[in-house]
Amino acid sequence: MSGPAPVSSSASLKIGIVGFGTFGQFLALAMIKQGHSLRATSRTDYSQLCADLGITFFSDVAAFLGAENDVILLCTSILSLSQVLKSMPFHSLKKPALFVDVLSVKEHARDTLLQVLPEDSDVLCTHPMFGPESGKDGWRDLNFMYERVRVRDEKTCSSFLKIFEIEGCRMLEMSCTEHDELAAKSQFITHAIGRILSDMDIKSTPIDTKSFEALVQLRKNMECDSFDLFSGLYIHNRFAKQELKNLEFAFEKLKHKLPKRNDEEQEVNQECMVKNSR
Predict the structure, then answer these.
(1) Tens-place pLDDT, residues 10-33
(2) Closest CA to 55 of 20, 11, 98
(3) Is 180 in contact with 238 (CB distance < 8 Å)?
(4) Is the pTM of this model over 0.85?
(5) How confident is the model over 62-102, as pLDDT tens digits?
(6) Could you give the C-alpha distances from 122 to 92, 150, 276, in angstroms and in order?
């Protein structure tokens, strides 16, 4: 497999990726295309894939940290972030680096990074609100949220953000708290409904409406994501718990509306029958 041809960017960065799974690989392709130098480490051995892409793979995390990365991009799962960070030998860092996470929950990521990282490390919290499926045809007009949590090296931070600007993302600067509150109402609810539809085993029928086709597609999209992601959205976004309660309340409210409407219709029918019998 040969890597894509490079596209010029504002400044070439040495970017180290922690967790080279599907999402890490997805982001790496755009970074390679823009001419950045990549290295990666992961629990799984991706040495051959990295060699094919022109990426240096490190099985030794200490050697990875000592490779003088400008940026260390954390592509771990929500549930494993804390454990991964606490196991990293940060004393191996040769120079301060900009640590960037791409998790779907931001307060948890921010608090964990500030708690665990060395004080001289910069912190940028981000959420590319797309993935390998929604971003397969390019990232133009797709949302990219970020907060400069602790940034002293503005040049490195700006160069990293430029990667997403070049790809045409809609750049949204907001606080981690604001992100989580909004994401609980959108991303978490979408995942919750998708999981409910999956448990119901809804399938296409010969008489599908466009709306039902959208529900079937939602179910399929959510099944492509791991249950760990859904669990992380619930466990580590403090606003998600209230949104789940709101969903349950709305469902119960709907259940009570239907029998009431049925009773009202029966009353109207009885009144009509009485009138017609006179």
Answers:
(1) 589 999 999 999 999 999 999 999
(2) 20
(3) yes
(4) yes
(5) 999 999 999 999 999 999 999 999 999 999 999 999 999 99
(6) 16, 5, 80
Residue 55, CA distances (Å) to 16, 17, 50, 61, 100 in order: 10, 10, 5, 15, 19
Residue ranges, the chain, pLDDT below 50: 1-8
- Nearest alpha-carbon partner for 168 in 198, 148, 197, 138: 138
* Neighbouring C-alpha atoms within 13 Å toward the C-beta of 28: 29
Exposure string of 42-71, with b = 16+ CB inside 10 Å and e = fewer, is: beeebbebbeebebbbbeebeebbbbebbb
Class of 14-174 in CATH: alpha beta
**Helix and strand tally (H, E) in the chain?**
11, 8
Domain segments of the chain: what residues?
Answer: 14-174, 180-257
Q: 10: how many CB neighbours lie within 10 A of its CB?
A: 15
- Tell me the chain's radius of gyration from C-alpha atoms: 24
Residue 222 near residue 131, CB atoms below 8 Å: no
